[in-house]
Here is the input.
Amino acid sequence: MKPTPSPITNDRSAGVPPAVAGASRPRFGEVKVRDRGRLPRWEKDNATYFITFRLADSLPKSVLERIESERRAVVKTAIGLRRDLSADERTRIARLSTPVIERLLDSGAGACDLQNSAIAEKVANPLRYFDEKRDRLSAWCVMPNHVHVVALLFPGQTLATVAHSWKSFSAKQANRMLRRHGLFWQRE
Here is the structure.
């Protein structure tokens, strides 16, 4: 006995299940969004991150205040209209952050304490020390007023914990060398 053909449907499928389960919808696991008020952090276990942290004086306060004011205005508008941020508004906020800040960092604002090779070494030491303990460094670069790191965090490690250990140790060492106290790295 010959099977009866199934009725034609308009679901545009090939009529067979995908060769790999979930192939039509990639699954990236759980992503945690952490937000301490300024920059949200998207975290995932076993993820590789591009991390930038900068000296406290690397961006003029007036510029940071202008960026924050523009960001608040965009959010206030959405809240006033009782809706989530639109795609355009999210893009505008993202543009306020990354390109503007990167351009300013590259302009060499502030005292640029990291151009002193002894201080730069104090920043590099914790990066190297924790390599293969909490994270796996792929690349890193100490610039005159900021640091770039590409690292894979090991299971159980959070971005906040790893970055805090790098920044805390290096700030204490650098401030000791500079014979000063107080903020060395910019918050967030």
In short: Helices lie at 61-80, 87-106, 117-130, 159-178. The chain has two domains: 37-58+111-188, 60-107. Strands lie at 32-35, 40-43, 48-54, 135-142, 146-153.
